[in-house]
Every structure is written in C-alpha cells, then in structure tokens.
Predict the structure.
Amino acid sequence: MLGLSAVKCRTQGLIAGHNRLVPSQGTSNARVVYYMAHFLDNYCYSTERDRLLVSFEDFHLQIYIDASLKSFKRIVNAADRVSVLQLQNIQNKIALYGMWRTESNLIRASDTYCSRQDGLRLNQDVRFQMLLNAARASFINTFGEEPDADFRHQLERSVNRRFRG
C-alpha cells in the first residue's frame, strides 16, 4: 500500500484506490471518527453547533463531528492524493502487462488488437473485396446482368495475381 508519507500527511487512513477509510482527525485523539471518504458528498463547519457537518449523499445522511475543519480538509485531501497515486499505479501496471480497461472490466490487449501482420492482411482482404465489388457493379451497369461464374473466377484470379502478388 502506498503510504501517506508520499503526500506529506502524518494521519493514517486505510486507502485502497477509490475506497478510503480515513479518520476525522489525529488517530490519538479520543474524539476520532473513521468514515468512508468515498461516500462523502460535502462538508462544512457549522458555527451554530460548533461542529463539522458532514453529508453522505448516497445515504441521505448528515452527521456532526467534533473535529477541526482545517484538519479534516487536510486529511481528506491527503487521502484523495494517495488514492489518485494508487489508481495511476494500477493504470500503469495494466498498460505494462498488455491489458486494456473498459468501463466494466479488464481484457487482454491481444483480444482487442490484431498483430501488425494480421492488420495488413485484413486491410488487403477488405481492399480486395472492395475491388471485386466495384468490378461486379461495373459489369452489371455495362451489361445489365450479373457476371457468370467463369467471369467472376477469371476476375478474382486476375485481381489476386496483381493485387496480392
């Protein structure tokens, strides 16, 4: 796990990518509260209650915490920076090991890309088929009928020899 020292924060939290369990203040403080920062929607200091008001939108929940706004902000920002570093590290490893990340999962790059030779062959096949289709359309426009099997065979042989060498 990437340490919080990388982002110059002494307060420890448990951070694994998007998931962040962090303390509301220093862990030696008796009033410390741990919360899941990835569910955190917003926070502000309530002068009326002299407490930090924290809201978790997905749960329609608001709680008051006896914590300093400055400390809370520092801890949340440090946890976010560690999270970003971990996720970037994961993305680098994904690329290094030839993986491709879709929105829902990981797949091997070999399942999504063809080799250079396969790509060239595929390109040639597409161009070959386009040429045959153009010749067929020209034949129909000129003679008003489909070319017979012998003509198609001769055309494919002729194009194949010149086109694919």
